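Thread: Modeling a multi-component assembly for a lab meeting

Hi all, long-time lurker, first post. My supervisor asked me to bring a structural picture of a complex we are working on to next week's group meeting, and I have zero experience with this. I have the sequence lines for every component (1168 residues in total). Could someone generate the structure of the whole assembly? Inputs are pasted exactly as I received them:
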Amino acid sequence: MKELSEVLKDWEAVIGLEIHTELTTLDTKMFCNCKLSHDDEPNANVCPVCLGLPGALPVPNKRAIESIVKAGLATNCEIQKRSMFYRKHYFYPDMAKNFQTTQGPVAFCMHGRLDLEVTGRGAAERPDCAFGEAEAASLASASANAEGLSTAMAQQMRTGGESAGALSAMSGYDTANLALPERHEDGSYTVPIRILRIHMEEDAAKMVHVGGEEGRIAAASESLIDYNRCGTPLIELVTEPDLRTPEEARLFMEKLRRIFLTLGISDCSMEHGSMRCDGNVSLRRRGETRLGTKTELKNLNSFKALHDGLAYEICRQAEVLEEGGIIYQETRHWEPGRKRTVVMRVKETADDYRLFPDPDLAPFDLSDEFIEHCRAEIPELPDAKRDRYEADFGIKRADAEQIAGDPETATFFEASAAGLSGKPAQAVANLIVNELAAYLKGVDGGIADCGIAPAQVASLAKLLAEDAISSNQAHEVFGLMAESGEDPEKIVDEHGMRQVSDAGALQPIVDDVLACCADQAQQYRDGNQKVLGFLVGQCMKASRGQGNPKLFNELLRKSLS
Amino acid sequence: MALSPNDVRGIAEYARIALDDGELEQMTAYLNDAVDMLAPVLDYDLPDVEPTFHPIGDLANVMREDAELAARDLPLDVALENAASSRDRFFRVPSILGEGGER
Amino acid sequence: MATSFDSLTAAQIATGIVAGQFTAREVATASLDAIAAREDAVQAFLQVSPELALAAADRIDAARAAGETLPPLAGVPLAIKDNMNLVGTRTTCASRMLENYESVYTATCVQRMLDAGCIPVGKANMDEFAFGSSTESSAFHPTNNPWDTQRIPGGSSGGSAAAVAAGEVPLALGSDTGGSIRQPAALCGVVGCKPTYGAVSRYGVVAFGSSLDQVGPFGRTVEDVALAMNALVGAGHDPYDGTSQDCAVDFCEHLGDSIEGRRVGIIPAFMEAEGLTDEVRDAVQQAARALESAGAELVEVDLPHLDAAIAAYYVIGPAEAFSNLARFDGIRYGYQEPDCPNLDTQSSLSRAHGFGDEAKRRQLLGAYLLSSGVYDKYYYAAQKARTLITADYAAAYEKCDVILMPASPRTAWRHGEISDPTQMYLSDLYTISINIVGNGGISVPLGLGATSHLPVAAQLVGPAFKDRTLLMFAAALERAFTGADGTPALAVAPVFAGKGGELA
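Re: Modeling a multi-component assembly
Sure thing. I ran the full set together rather than chain by chain. Output:
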């Protein structure tokens, strides 16, 4: 198979994502008062409602509705005041009622967007030829989303006064509002990705397949059902098919995750399945205006899987098409171990889910007060936070982005960098992005209970900024302060680690090293710049790590010139 | 347009109700009679009338607080009490795809 | 002198217990005795619950002995339609599907009756999953009309109506999706009230048509029905039912009020409808004159879109029923076909063998009506018709307080007399539109028909959440049909009156 970069020169990949997020931070399920289970014993948290017992009735969880409204506001969606829950019928035992309660043509949140900044190596995935022309062309029909909705539901939006905008949800790929990406001089680009809708629904039960290969359903002799997860509040975000590269898909997912984490509506764990992503992808020749046949990818349960699964599928489709083959509309499963996608199910006809408004659930007509109350509870979002960190603390944009994306980290950063800017603030950022992140991987729990105080990090950052210690020493001090809880100043003093930045004290070491390493000194004089690193290393060694490497560098250059 | 026995078979398969040939024939006749009886409704697909899905007047935005309620929890033995087949703490179903089946 | 238990109203029983005339245990025992003596002939019950009844009675007696204030229906025996969950009983919906289904929680409506002091004596027969108008579709046995045991009691709450008419209990709960309280009440000669949709919680009542179903009481007097309404509605909105509403009022407060100057609507088209028998028409016209004599003004009202009501009902009802009954797949509960090789076979055979014919017919009709393309033409249009019929009624209530009409076009028919399902559907002509609009309706006995000598009744219907007004008119009608000597239009069916169940 060809490389992705080769494929994307000839083919345009049209990618849409469906992202399910469990509202794990709530206390109870979507329609009943059962505790949300994370790792309780099977069927420990069930009641007549989530077991679908005869006569049970659903009542929506207010905080779940607030959460989805916040999710919509934070992703620039139009909040639909009027919407309803629908019943979506399919017989499968993970749905206790054999229907899922979900939303119809009008979701709580419609027509949002997120802007992606694609930089570095990932930016190269979108070739220069892909800027503008294909998107600018008008596109024929493609039912990218909103499966199972009938024409009457579309009509209902006209007659029922619900958002007429939702009509486009069913008429295919709306290109009228498709914005073009903007390429910057450094090769990076920004691109707005439209969100079709975010709707509220309930999660299904967990099934365990017994007797089959690796717990897979095929050849299983029986299946066991645990209804703990059944009825967990779930929001499904559907993008317009505006994504064009696996890198954009990954960035979108990451960005969305950072926003949802900041909103506090979910723990967003892809590993544990509280945030799940399916990808739809089709190819068309560059310049072609009609959409190709799409496949749907499942099991994209990490950012890497999302990227690699899509990349594989794009290359696979290109190979099939270039050999004159046909792409079938099918669901495919990404196998990360074998690095391939395999067919799960062929969709011959559209599923008929018999959707109709749930008569047990009163319609919604959200008030301005309700929506404004939700808006007021939205904390500063990652993009705004990133821009503020960049402006106020003067730290690098990439670091600001990373720190701002995680609420706990951001809080810790702000406490550590309070009153700092420029070099010491950047030192704080470096320590958090490198040292703290690495340290947290080795311990249980989060930042709040890891035993490291912001004041320690601030103090360590100051030592770094003053060149009192080297970054290698900082790594050592970080470990010691995490262990002892003591102030870095004290650790540095006690261990005699303070970096020597006195030229008078370091010059003799430089002279000794140059004397010992006459060959290397000569090589440098002959124009081999690289050898300087070796000489600095020798000086550091001779100073038992306490010399300021930058100063050594300077003194060596001077001595050799 | 009348429903054929084949149409009815498709509906019955979807609705998970097994019908033998005799039942299929009777059901087809019944459904066609019933659908004929429903004809007056066809005249009501009027453009400027809103449908009433909920006969509850202006009632809207019914929500509950996000709070646990131990009173409704079912202990495991009660939850499984009416299940014809269970194993350990689980409800049990036979092979979903059938013996050695592939979908 | 011994008093027959069945000669007492619910109100008299509760008063008698408070006064110490008899104990709750004596009443419960009398009710169980009456059931034992009459059930062979009536077959109103699917399950009798003596342990629950006697335990509840003993609690009442203990409370009285402790000097506590007794609740308003203390010691009143109650029959409960078998689609209502009550812990300690099976809830079968008269279906093989749920033959062994043990209730694991109690329905709000049942709990409220128990909180009001009622004694649960058993679960009443019904059409399977409430699909029917005769109680003949019960998977277990038919119920016989106490006025003529060769005849059906109506349905689907036929067991509840028959138990009251046979004097086995003074009160019963039923549910009404298209007339399932009002029609059997009419055919059995008792009072049956379908309150406004949302007045009574549906939580714990096995759903048929979620936007149509409503729970209500049967009694032999309007006062008893009003007392039951107080119990069902008094505690207000049920947090477990998102469509239930707060409408607590004292339903007994205006029962004795005069209707002088109030207006009663008559729909001329209804009085000339095809299938309406002469004796029922005559009786309803007599009721109209009686209300006029009591000072009410009769006004003609017109409901132009009523012709769509039956069709709309048989679209909405089956569609909702298909959806509500999808959960019965034999996995979590219900009949499970043994030894199936895979899940699809198990589900399809469990449903094929667990459900009776009418339940299968309605589900398949519903599954068809909701399918892509069909939904638009039928379901969506039916909900628009609902809007127009609702507006028709609202316009009519500009001109009148209540509307008087038949409850059933005819008196009770013989078992097996109507076998064509679509023919059976037409017997709900007068009741269905009230479920579609969600308003209240009440069936009031008018005595025996001139031809059939079987109970005939009138139906009063009113605007949403004006059920108290409805009861006021029902009481006025009841008074008008009570003899000068105090003999009611109808009491316990004479064959059964006094048979078993004496109070010392």
